[in-house]
Amino acid sequence: xxxxxxxxxxxxxxxxxxxxxxxxxxxxxxxxxxxxxxxxxxxxxxxxxxxxxxxxxxxxxxxxxxxxxxxxxxxxxxxxxxxxxxxxxxxxxxxxxxxxxxxxxxxxxxxxxxxxxxxxxxxxxxxxxxxxxxxxxxxxxxxxxxxxxxxxxxxxxxxxxxxxxxxxxxxxxxxxxxxxxxxxxxxxxxxxxxxxxxxxxxxxxxxxxxxxxxxxxxxxxxxxxxxxxxxxxxxxxxxxxxxxxxxxxxxxxxxxxxxxxxxxxxxxxxxxxxxxxxxxxxxxxxxxxxxxxxxxxxxxxxxxxxxxxxxxxxxxxxxxxxxxxxxxxxxxxxxxxxxxxxxxxxxxxxxxxxxxxxxxxxxxxxxxxxxxxxxxxxxxxxxxxxxxxxxxxxxxxxxxxxxxxxxxxxxxxxxxxxxxxxxxxxxxxxxxxxxxxxxxxxxxxxxxxxxxxxxxxxxxxxxxxxxxxxxxxxxxxxxxxx
Length: 482
Description:
The protein has 482 residues and is of the alpha/beta class. It has two domains: 9-251 and 455-480, Aldehyde Dehydrogenase, Chain A, domain 1; 256-436, 3-Layer(aba) Sandwich (Aldehyde Dehydrogenase, Chain A, domain 2), CATH 3.40.309.10. Helix content is 39%, strand content 22%. It is built from 16 helices and 22 strands. The protein has helices at 43-60, 65-81, 83-94, 98-115, 118-121, 157-168, 183-194, 209-217, 230-242, 265-277, 297-309, 329-345, 377-380, 396-404, 419-428, 464-470; strands spanning 9-11, 14-16, 23-27, 34-39, 125-131, 134-142, 145-149, 172-176, 202-204, 223-227, 246-250, 256-260, 289-293, 348-351, 367-370, 387-393, 408-409, 411-415, 433-436, 452-453, 456-458, 472-480. The strands form six sheets. Strands 14-15-16-13-12-18-19 form a seven-stranded mixed beta sheet, sandwiched between helices. A six-stranded mixed beta sheet has the order 9-8-7-10-11-21, sandwiched between helices. The longest helix has 18 residues, at 43-60. The model has no long low-confidence stretch (mean pLDDT 97).
């Protein structure tokens, strides 16, 4: 287990404390107690990390693909072995419940599983006799040094969306995790080292805007993988692309869940609550808008309020807890500002999460607004917290028009017993990940995480075959022998 007094970086196969004077305190969101100090990596240390990755790329990219896959098999076994410890670490630094943390780590393991298939994933193709006496073949090659910039809300899973596939396809990697939740990243480095990954193939640096900008503009970084807010994703994409790098930048979301008047009310409402308030609403697949379609609106709101009242607010280590804290006190204050503003705008407050009886930590209870309209800030912007907006639509056409008018397009779901409604939704909803009677339409690791609109900037998405294509480049060889 890593020491929690000072968070270390990992450069060239060695753990070290940064020489920087600046250090951020890292609190446990459930208690407010400081659990670690995070020194930011210096400019020189980030250059060292990229340099170590560049040096390691020469040999790692020539390592046979089955040998690279063996490292992933060992890495996967270590993750399975340490799943309880890894889950507890996520809960400690992020605040989510242990069940949620365990679910996160399991989803991370799915990506490692996928990467273990590298000998198949890396296969090219060929065609003999494309012309008389001439053959042609396509092969895949790694792109070089990859930098990953990851958010606080999934400190274990999101780095693992990137690292296994990037490394197993022959690249080397520099990870800059969120400065709010850096502990899991260092533990990942420890397990990769234990799995036998050579020095320099994987590196961890810490910091905020300056560290990000240095990686975006570094001449030896070939590709950037990013997950975060839409505003930052747009900046990441523009800056990295302007510096000649391939980029995948996953942004924010405002995910709508349509509840048709033919839907089964109780399970539909339960799924909406789970989608909206799981992980304290701090996920880009949270169903933050429920649209009651037809005459179901009033009954839906009553059911949602009843289900929300059953959620138990508390620390993630308590097995009875079903709703943990938000990440920081500043985040809680911003969410309360949104709630106050929605009241002023005329939204009807159904469940008020501002009044909680927990003195420690950064807790906000489940909050539900009814009669939200598209002109309200609470609908336009991603709140990233336990706040659910309920809207009304007369029919599926009006509901889809509302959904599609959002500037985001990450996920959308429909609850219905009608195959016709479901088919109409699948055809017309403008979002990359859709669910039919599913509250959180999170793809498995062998499918891509396909956001649309301002939820994604780039071409090739995270996970699945898209990730293999993103982390490799093609070489086509045409051959003739005389």
